[in-house]
Specification:
By secondary structure, this protein is α+β, with helices and mostly antiparallel strands. The protein is built from two helices and eight strands, in the order ββααββββββ. It has a four-stranded antiparallel sheet with strand order 4-3-6-7, with no helix packed on it. A two-stranded parallel sheet has the order 1-8. A hairpin with a 2-residue loop joins β3 and β4.
């Protein structure tokens, strides 16, 4: 996904990539340890993602890209 801002929060990124259907679902999946960022499990839904960061959720790798 390409972003036009310096960063995007993890929960917003998952929603915009349609990996989850709602913010509540994103919060739950992150809290359960189902999401990793750059190879490490991430438990903070407000984690700032920057271009080049890799998010893995449900076996799918998503990459943050600058526009």
């Amino acid at each position: 996904m390409q972003i036009t801002t310096p960063f995007i929060k993890l929960d917003s990124f998952l929603k915009s990539e349609n990996a989850v259907s709602s913010g509540g679902e994103a919060k739950m999946m992150i809290a359960e340890g189902c999401v990793s960022v750059n190879g490490e499990v991430e438990m903070r839904r407000g984690r700032k993602l920057y271009p080049g960061d890799e998010v893995v959720y449900n076996g799918k790798k998503l990459v943050v890209e600058a526009s």
